[in-house]
From TrEMBL, chain A:
Protein's GO biological process: cellular respiration; organic acid metabolic process; sulfur compound biosynthetic process
Source organism (scientific name): Candidatus Heimdallarchaeum endolithica
Descriptive protein name: 2-oxoacid:ferredoxin oxidoreductase subunit beta
Top-level lineage group: Archaea
Classification lineage: Archaea, Promethearchaeati, Candidatus Heimdallarchaeota, Candidatus Heimdallarchaeia (ex Rinke et al. 2021) (nom. nud.), Candidatus Heimdallarchaeales
InterPro entries reported for this sequence: 2-oxoacid:Fd_oxidoreductase, OFOB, PFO_beta_C, THDP-binding, TPP_enzyme_TPP-bd
From TrEMBL, chain B:
Listed name of the protein: 2-oxoacid:acceptor oxidoreductase subunit alpha
Ranges of residues in domain Pyruvate:ferredoxin oxidoreductase core: 478-567
Segments forming domain Pyruvate/ketoisovalerate oxidoreductase catalytic: 13-179
GO biological process: organic acid metabolic process; response to oxidative stress; sulfur compound biosynthetic process
Species for this entry: Candidatus Heimdallarchaeum endolithica
Keyword DNA damage: no
Superkingdom field: Archaea
GO molecular function: oxidoreductase activity, acting on the aldehyde or oxo group of donors
Domain Pyruvate flavodoxin/ferredoxin oxidoreductase pyrimidine binding: 215-427
Keyword tags: Oxidoreductase
Length: 295, 583
C-alpha cells in the first residue's frame, strides 16, 4: 500500500476538544479527519462551517479553514463559500437544535437547492450547550428543563424530511461506530450534490434516554440489507419506519447521482467562473453591455 | 433661478407610468438636458393614483420641483384625485373624450386647458393602448420646442429591437400628436432651454449603486425581494452570465447576509441588499461578520416604517437601527449616499472600505434615492480597484487575528496552504481559537479580550482618517445653517439657492458619513452658526439626536416630514423665513 499524502492528525488543530469526556462528538471529530485523509483532500481546500452549540465547537479542533457562524446559520454561510469558490470541499456541522430548529428554513432550502456541500448534524435529541432543553427531535414525553412534564410536541424526522425536500444523499450514522461514520462521511464528501448525514450522537451529560446503550440495542446497518438506495420510495419507507423505537437503520438511505447540482445550473459557474478568483472591476465590453439600457 | 421645466404625468398603475416616465426621460436626455425624476406611487399592481414628475433644464437640476408647468392626466379617475395638486399657470393635457375638467371643478381661470383626443388619435395608427402616450409625447414635443428627429432617434433605439413596423407606428403616433398641437395652436412654453444632441446616461439610484458595486469588484450579491431594494437584484441578475458573478435570491434575509459572508470569506467581494424589515433579520450577521472581521456590504434602502409601514413611501428613519444593529460593542461603517451619482461612488467605496478594514459597511439608501432617476455625466466605470490585506503566501508566524497598530490583521483565503485558521463568532486569541468556552475569564485571557476589543475599535479611527470632510456650502457668515443627511442633499441645496435669491444668507452642512462621524468638524460648524435648522425625513429627528449624542450640540430648529412624501424646497424656505424673522 502506498503511503497516504495526509494523516488524520494533519487535520487536527492545536486546540484540544472541550467536550465532556465521552461525548458523541469525539467520534465524529475522528471520523471527519479520517475521511478527509482517506480522500487526500488538502486541509487548505476544506472549509467547515458550524453554528452554535457544543457540537458547533468542532471547527476549533480542526486544522482546516474553520468557521463558526451564529446559531443555525452554518448552511447559508457554507453555501456562499461554495458558490464563491467551487474548488473547495465545504462541510457544515451543527446540532439538532442548530440545524433542524433555528436553522430549519436553511436546511429545507439547502436540500432542494442541491449545492454540493455536506451537512452533518450531531443529533443528540437535546440542547446540550444551553444545559438540556427539548430539541426538535426530542420524542413526545421527554423530560427536559423546558418540558418538566414531558415534551408535548411531535418530533421531526430529519431523514424523511431531507429525502422529501430533494436532498440527493441522505444518510444516518452513529457515534458509537466511528469506522462506519468514516465510511458514510467519505461517501458524503464524494457525493456530487447536497449530502446530508444525521448522526445519533449521545449527550452523556443531559440526555439519559438516547444513550450509547439505547442505540447499540436498536441499530442495524442498511448496507447489510437488500435496500436499494436509489429507490426514492423505498428510502422514504425506510426513513418513516417507527422512529426512535425498536429498529433504527444507519447507513445510506438515499443517493442519486443523476440530478444536476446548483453549480452545474448556475449561469456563471457553469461557464467555469470562480467568483473568488476573477479579476475585479468591469471590462470595456462588460461596461458596454450593462450600460446600454441607460443611454 | 435658472430656467427649468417640470412635467407631471398622472395615471394609474395600469397606464405604464414607469416606462412612460423612463421614455420621456430618455427624450429629454437626448437633448443634452439635465433631469431629475421621481414617481410617487402605491403598493398595488393595477389601479391606484400615481404621479411621475420630471424636471429638466440646461443647467443643474436639484429636485423634481413642486409646481408643474405641464400636467398630463392619463385617465378620468386620477384627474379627479389630482385636483388639489393643480397649480397656477399649469398647462393641462387631457383626453376630452373621457375627462371633463369643468365638471371636475378644475379652476379654468388660472390654468390652461389643452384637450387632445389621445385615445382616438392613437387608434388611427395602432390597437395598442400605450400608443396614446406617444401621441402625447408628440404634442408635448411641440410645446416644449423639442427636436422631432431626436425624439425619433429615441423611439428607434427603444423599439427598434421589436421590428421596423412598431417603430413606424410610433413615428406616426408622434407625428399625429405634433400635428394636433400645431393645428390647435397650442402655445409653446415661454421658458427656452438650450439643447443639442446629448450622450449622458439616465439611471435610477439603485442602478447607479449596482454599477458602482460592480466597478468596485462585486462578485457576489444575495437578496430577498423587498421594496425599495429589489431593483438592485433585478439589475444584477439581468447581466449575470456576462459578468461571471453570483446573484442569489435566498430563502430569507438571514440567508442572504450569511451567504454574502461565506462568499466574502473566500475572497469574493460581496454585498446584500434589503429594506428595514429584512435588515432587522440580518442584524445578527452584522455582529458576526464584525467579530469575524469578514468584509461585508449591506444596503438598507429605507422606506416608511415601522414594520411593513408604507412600502412605497420614503423615509429616513432607520438611522438608529443601523447604528445599533447587533449586540455588543464593535465598530461599523455607515454611509448615506447624497444623490444618484454619489450612489455609484459609494458602491465602489463601500466594497473597498469593507475589504481594507475587514468590516461591515452599511449603506443607507432610501426609497427616493433608490427609485428616483437622474441624468448623470461622470460615472467612472473604468475605475480599477485593487485588493487589500490578503496574503497569498504564509510565514510560520502567521496569526489571522494578530494585534496590530492599525487594528487590521493579515488575512488568508481558503485554498491558501498553511493559512488555515479558525474564524469564529466567539471572542478569540490571535490564532483565532475561542477564548469564550473553557478559557473564558482565566487571568491569562482577560488581556486578550481587551486587546481584541481595542484592536477592532482602532480600525474605525483609521477609516476616519481617510474619509473626506462633510460637505459645507455657502457663505460662512450666513444667517442660518441648514443641516441635512443622505438623499436630501440636493433638495436642501435648492432651498439654499432660493433663499439667497430672496436675500436670506444660508449655508449648508450635509452629512454622508454617519460612522465614523466627523464630530470635530461638525461641531465647529454648528458652534459658529447663527441659527441652525435640521431637515429630515422622519418623525423624531434621528439625525438631530445623533448629532447631539456625538457633539453635545443641541440643534434648535427642525423641519421633519414623515407622511411618506418628499420634503420640498419651499417648505424649507418657509421655515427659514419664520426663524430668521423672529430673530
Ligand atoms: C440566536 C440564538 N439563540 C439562542 C442561543 C443559545 N443557544 C446556544 S446553543 C443552543 C442550542 C444548542 O443545541 P444544539 O444545536 O442541539 O447543539 P448541542 O449543544 O446539543 O450540540 C442555543 C439555544 C444562541 N446562541 N443564539
Ligand atoms: S453537554 Fe452533552 S453534547 Fe455537550 S459536550 Fe457534554 S456530552 Fe457533549
Amino acid at each position: 500500500m502506498t503511503e497516504r499524502k495526509y494523516k488524520a492528525d494533519d487535520y487536527k488543530s492545536d486546540f484540544r476538544p472541550t467536550w465532556c469526556p465521552g461525548c458523541g462528538n469525539f467520534a465524529q471529530w475522528r471520523a471527519i479527519r479520517a475521511a478527509l485523509a482517506e480522500l487526500e483532500i488538502p486541509p487548505e481546500n476544506v472549509v467547515l462551517a458550524s453554528g452554535i452549540g457544543c457540537s458547533s465547537h468542532m471547527p476549533n479542533f480542526l486544522n482546516v479553514y474553520g468557521m463558526q457562524t451564529v446559531h443555525g446559520r452554518g448552511i447559508p454561510v457554507a453555501t456562499g463559500v461554495r458558490l464563491a469558490n467551487p474548488k473547495l470541499t465545504v462541510l457544515v456541522y451543527g446540532g439538532d437544535g442548530d440545524i433542524y430548529g433555528i436553522g430549519g428554513n436553511h436546511f429545507l432550502h439547502a436540500c432542494r437547492r442541491n449545492v454540493d456541500i455536506i451537512t452533518i448534524v450531531s443529533n443528540n435529541f437535546i440542547y446540550g450547550l444551553t444545559t438540556g432543553q427539548a430539541s426538535p427531535t426530542s420524542p413526545v414525553g421527554t423530560l427536559t428543563k423546558t418540558t418538566p412534564r414531558g415534551s408535548i410536541e411531535n418530533p421531526l424526522n430529519p431523514v424523511s424530511l431531507a429525502i422529501s425536500a430533494g436532498a440527493t444523499f441522505v444518510a444516518r450514522g452513529f457515534s458509537g461506530d466511528a469506522k462506519h461514520l468514516q465510511y458514510i462521511f467519505k461517501e458524503a464528501i464524494q457525493h456530487r450534490g447536497f449530502a446530508f448525514v444525521d448522526v445519533f450522537s449521545p449527550c452523556i451529560t443531559f440526555n439519559k434516554n438516547q444513550t450509547f446503550d439505547f442505540f447499540r440495542a436498536r441499530i442495524y446497518k442498511i448496507e447489510e440489507t437488500e435496500h436499494d438506495k436509489e429507490d426514492f420510495h423505498a428510502a422514504l419507507d425506510l426513513a418513516n419506519q417507527r422512529f426512535v423505537r425498536d429498529h433504527l437503520p444507519i447507513g445510506i438511505f438515499y443517493q442519486i447521482e443523476n440530478k444536476t447540482t446548483y453549480e452545474e445550473r448556475d449561469f456563471a459557474l457553469n461557464q467555469g467562473y470562480i467568483p473568488a478568483h476573477e479579476e475585479l472591476g468591469l471590462s470595456d465590453e462588460q461596461i458596454e453591455i450593462i450600460t446600454k439600457e441607460f443611454y | 433661478m435658472n430656467q427649468d421645466i417640470s412635467v407631471r404625468f398622472v395615471g394609474s398603475a395600469g397606464d405604464g407610468l414607469v416606462s412612460l416616465g423612463w421614455l420621456f426621460a430618455k427624450i429629454i436626455k437626448k437633448h443634452n438636458l439635465n433631469l431629475v425624476g421621481f414617481r410617487s406611487y402605491q403598493s398595488v399592481i393595477r389601479g391606484g393614483y400615481n404621479e411621475y414628475q420630471l424636471r429638466f433644464s440646461d443647467e443643474k437640476v436639484y429636485s423634481v420641483g413642486e409646481e408643474a408647468d405641464i400636467i398630463v392626466l392619463l385617465n378620468k379617475q386620477v384627474a379627479s384625485l389630482h385636483l388639489p395638486r393643480v397649480n397656477e399657470n399649469a398647462k393641462i393635457v387631457y383626453d376630452q373624450d373621457y375627462v371633463d375638467l369643468d365638471e371636475l371643478g378644475y379652476p379654468s381661470d388660472i390654468i390652461e386647458k389643452l384637450p387632445i383626443p389621445m385615445k382616438e388619435l392613437a387608434k388611427q395608427v395602432s390597437k395598442l393602448s400605450v400608443i396614446k402616450n406617444i401621441v402625447v409625447f408628440g404634442a408635448l414635443g411641440h410645446i416644449l420646442g423639442l427636436d422631432t428627429e431626436l425624439i425619433k432617434e429615441v423611439l428607434e433605439e427603444q423599439f427598434g429591437y421589436k421590428g421596423k413596423e412598431l417603430v413606424e407606428v410610433n413615428f406616426k403616433a408622434l407625428d399625429l400628436g405634433i400635428e394636433f398641437a400645431k393645428n390647435n395652436n397650442w402655445e409653446k412654453v415661454s421658458k427656452k432651454l438650450k439643447f443639442e444632441k446629448g450622450k449622458q446616461m439616465v439611471i435610477t439610484g439603485n442602478e447607479a449603486l449596482a454599477l458602482g458595486l460592480l466597478t468596485g469588484g462585486l462578485k457576489y450579491y444575495s437578496g430577498y425581494p423587498m421594496t425599495p431594494a429589489t431593483s438592485i437584484i433585478h439589475f444584477l441578475t439581468r447581466y449575470l452570465p456576462k459578468l461571471g458573478i453570483i446573484v442569489k435570491q435566498t430563502e430569507d434575509e438571514i440567508a442572504a447576509a450569511g451567504m454574502a459572508v461565506g462568499a466574502s470569506y473566500c475572497g469574493a467581494r460581496a454585498a446584500t441588499g434589503t429594506s428595514g424589515g429584512g435588515f432587522a433579520l440580518m442584524t445578527e450577521i452584522v455582529g458576526m461578520a464584525s467579530i469575524q472581521e469578514v468584509p461585508l456590504v449591506i444596503i438598507n434602502s429605507m422606506r416608511a416604517g415601522p414594520s411593513t409601514g408604507m412600502a412605497t413611501k420614503t423615509e429616513q428613519a432607520d438611522l438608529f437601527q443601523a447604528y445599533g444593529a447587533s449586540q455588543g460593542d464593535f465598530p461599523k461603517i455607515i454611509i448615506a449616499p447624497n444623490d444618484i451619482e454619489d450612489a455609484f461612488n459609494v458602491g465602489i467605496e463601500s466594497l473597498e472600505l469593507a475589504e481594507k478594514y475587514q468590516m461591515v459597511v452599511i449603506v443607507l439608501m432610501d426609497l427616493y434615492l433608490s427609485e428616483g432617476i437622474a441624468t448623470v455625466r461622470k460615472l467612472n466605470l473604468k475605475y480599477k480597484t485593487k485588493r487589500y490585506g490578503i496574503l497569498d503566501k504564509v510565514d510560520d508566524d502567521y496569526l489571522r487575528y494578530k494585534i496590530t497598530e492599525s487594528g487590521i490583521s493579515p488575512r488568508t483565503l481558503p485554498g491558501t496552504p498553511k493559512g488555515m485558521h479558525f474564524t469564529g463568532s466567539s471572542e478569540r486569541n490571535e490564532k483565532g481559537f475561542s477564548i469564550a468556552s473553557t478559557l473564558a475569564g482565566l487571568p491569562e485571557t482577560l488581556p486578550i479580550r481587551n486587546a481584541m476589543v481595542e484592536k477592532r475599535a482602532r480600525k474605525l479611527k483609521q477609516v476616519a482618517k481617510e474619509i473626506p470632510e462633510p460637505i459645507f456650502e455657502g457663505d460662512k457668515d450666513a444667517d442660518i445653517t441648514l443641516v441635512s443627511w443622505g438623499s436630501t442633499l440636493n433638495i436642501v441645496r435648492e432651498a439654499r439657492i432660493n433663499l439667497e435669491e430672496e436675500g436670506i444668507k444660508a449655508n449648508h452642512l450635509h452629512i454622508k458619513y454617519i460612522l465614523p462621524f466627523q464630530k470635530e468638524k461638525v461641531k465647529e460648524i454648528l458652534e459658529n452658526a447663527k441659527e441652525v435648522l435640521i431637515i429630515e425625513q422622519n418623525f423624531s429627528g434621528q439625525m438631530q439626536r445623533y448629532i447631539c449624542m456625538q457633539t453635545a450640540f443641541d440643534i434648535k430648529h427642525h423641519l421633519r416630514r414623515y407622511d411618506g412624501e418628499l420634503i420640498v424646497p419651499s417648505q424649507i424656505v418657509e421655515k427659514v423665513k419664520e426663524i430668521v424673522k423672529n430673530d
